[in-house]
Amino acid sequence: MFELSDAVVEEVIFGMENQNCDSWIDLETGSRIERPCEAEEGEDGADSGPEASTMARVRVPQWSSQDGFKLMEDFSRTVYDAVTRGELLAALARGRGVFRAFKNVLDSRPDIEKRWYEHKHKAMRRVIVAWYDDLRELQGLERLGPEPDDLDDLIAEDFVLREGGRSLWVDLQPVFRASLVEALERFPEAVVEYEYTRLEGEIASGPDEGLRVLVAEAVPGDAAGVAVMRTLFVADRSFGKVVYLYVKPERRRLGLGRRLIETARERFAECSVHHVIVDMPFLGDEFGEALGAVGYRSFGARWIKAAED
To answer: Which residues, given as ranges, of the chain have pLDDT below 50?
Structure first.
């Protein structure tokens, strides 16, 4: 099984973006193999089935023009400069020639163009890492999990971070309601109502001491992600608790949630609070894996099952 080196990642990205050829990766060497798209399935002996454990080669992850368009759209909404953001979104709304129009806008803004290519590379690398983990699993090897990436750059360049107390939380009620609606789509209503009532009481009605709200904005006044942290005191000791986290769906898979958690941890450390727990019942398993990649350990567990099953 090949190692996922930077050189192999570049080979895979090239194959994903090349719409004129089918591309495989040799499972032993990591080298890229190409075949014209019009060639018939099975020609030149290449097996294109999903069972990588029986193959000498495997197709690169699927990447369509729609995936590329979605990536450009997501990036455009994170551009803080309102004029450039509007020009990029207008380019994507043309209907035809959107890729060229998008590139033309970036040509006039080298700083934003650089961020675009970094954003694109990170997004495609995340897809490749997940694909590689699936291959390892099929080969009977342990999954490596998501890579820790340069999340500080994401916050510093693509998002502006605001901090405040309970008064800032009052302005974030639409975000809170959106997270409630999303939770109701995935979990039993009684469970969600109980947890969110408890959560709202802790944030909105609890003591002001030790409560901080972190808001990440790509566009002024439009919260892309929110975290609420609280310092809890037990006798002469204390610990930090992240009691709420929500990232809008269109801003996910950028590392923003993990960066908000890490920012909260840094703020706790500045106040000599030595331990931090993340206590949100509706975060997915994949987010736990992301936190594990930067040193967080599991702290208890919750399970749910229908009583009739």
So the answer is: 43-54, 150-151, 154
Determine the Cα–Cα distance for residues 239 and 276; give it in Å rounded to an integer: 6
What residue type is 301 in one-letter code? A
Residue type, 309: D
Residue type for position 154 = L
CA distance 223 to 175: 8
3-state secondary structure of 249: helix
Name 226's Cβ contacts closer than 8 Å, sequence gap at least 6: 172, 175, 213, 214, 215, 216, 244, 245, 246, 247, 260
Task: Report in angstroms the alpha-carbon separations of 270 from 93, 108, 274.
Answer: 45, 41, 9
Tens digits of residue pLDDT in 104-153: 999 999 999 998 998 899 889 989 999 999 999 998 898 887 665 544 55
CATH architecture of 155-292: 3-Layer(aba) Sandwich (3.40)
The domain locations on the chain are 1-145, 155-292
Q: Which residues pair with 223 in a beta bridge?
A: 217
- What does the alpha-carbon distance between residue 95 and residue 263 come to, in Å, rounded to a whole number? 40
In contact, 147 and 9? CB cutoff 8 Å: no
